[in-house]
Design brief:
single chain; 301 residues; alpha+beta; Pseudouridine synthase; 14-stranded mixed beta sheet; 16 strands; 28% strand; globular; disordered N terminus; disordered C terminus
């Protein structure tokens, strides 16, 4: 049972922050949180009122980081998606981040637990370039003049030896609504576990006998966010900062129960500079990792 936010201390929201420096904050977003201020009335279901409180989160972060104004939202994750979400501490940082998103220089990598075993894949990796069109909120692959270019790369990490489920690492090159959900379900024919919109078939009996998939829970996680950052001085001012958001506990449990191995830094999260582990601090950015974790020695690939 979900706790009422009215009874939850406001400072609980700040626990979502996993990294911060002088201009940005990166959160590990939980499921069900809408990445915008709530505009719904009090007549909405209690579960919605209790969970979708982004304004409370922004207000708490303002207090925790001693900001003049609430942080700026520069991108969003779907309500059902978990993982790395970056906020800007000030307007200048928001403009810089927005420019990176427009130029598609920000790397966005996701982990998706999908329905389909090893036999569902003819290769270990691939590209999807099917254009998408949104009509009345429903997204589909389309060749019409209104469809937009959409680019997704995928890699098969592992398949369960027990049930027809697989773990994919997916790179998002464009950021259209429901892009990953549609591309994985309708282009790759391996829908994301728990997605009720882009697949109508029930989970197979083989899966249902081994695990119980939580209701209204889609297993898509924004695993890594890679940004261009700049040091104040030195010969190599420009570098790439990558923040890895730890997988939610239920995601880890499902992988464990079905025999799907996970990399250490997917489970614990981490911070990397130009692909190398960065420890807990980036001194020339006044940056620091904010959550306890196990240190990892894996190089990003």
């Amino acid at each position: 049972m979900l706790r009422s936010i009215k009874r939850t201390a406001a400072k609980d929201w700040s626990r979502l922050a996993i990294y911060a420096d002088r201009s940005i904050i990166v959160l590990n977003k939980p499921p069900y949180l809408i990445c915008q201020g709530s505009e719904k009335g009090e007549d909405q279901p209690p579960r919605e009122r209790n969970v979708d409180k982004f304004n409370d989160l922004l207000s708490d972060l303002k207090d925790q980081f001693h900001l003049e104004k609430v942080p700026h939202t520069v991108h969003r994750l779907d309500k059902a998606t978990t993982g790395a979400l970056v906020l800007a501490k000030n307007l200048t940082a928001a403009r810089q981040l927005s420019q990176q998103f427009r130029n598609r220089t920000i790397g966005k990598t996701y982990l998706a637990l999908v329905r389909g075993g090893a036999q569902s894949f003819s290769a270990q990796s691939g590209e999807i370039r099917d254009p998408l069109e949104s009509i009345n909120g429903r997204v589909s692959i389309s060749q019409s003049c209104n469809a937009k270019f959409a680019a997704t790369d995928w890699e098969l990490i592992a398949s369960s030896p027990r049930v027809p489920l697989s773990l994919l690492r997916v790179k998002l090159h464009t950021g259209l609504k429901h892009q990953l959900r549609v591309h994985l379900a309708h282009s790759l024919h391996t829908p994301i576990l728990g997605d009720p919109v882009y697949t109508r078939s029930a989970v197979s009996d083989k899966v249902a006998r081994v695990i119980k998939v939580p209701e209204n829970r889609i297993f898509l996680h924004a695993s890594r966010l890679c940004l261009s950052r700049f040091r104040k001085a030195g010969p190599n001012k420009h570098f790439r900062l990558e923040v890895a958001a730890a997988l939610p506990g239920d995601f880890v449990t499902l992988c464990k129960d079905t025999g799907i191995p996970l990399k250490e830094w997917d489970v614990s999260g981490g911070m990397f500079v130009d692909g190398e582990p960065a420890g807990d601090e980036i001194t020339d950015l006044d940056g620091r990792w904010l959550r306890p974790r196990h240190h990892t020695t894996h190089r990003l690939r």
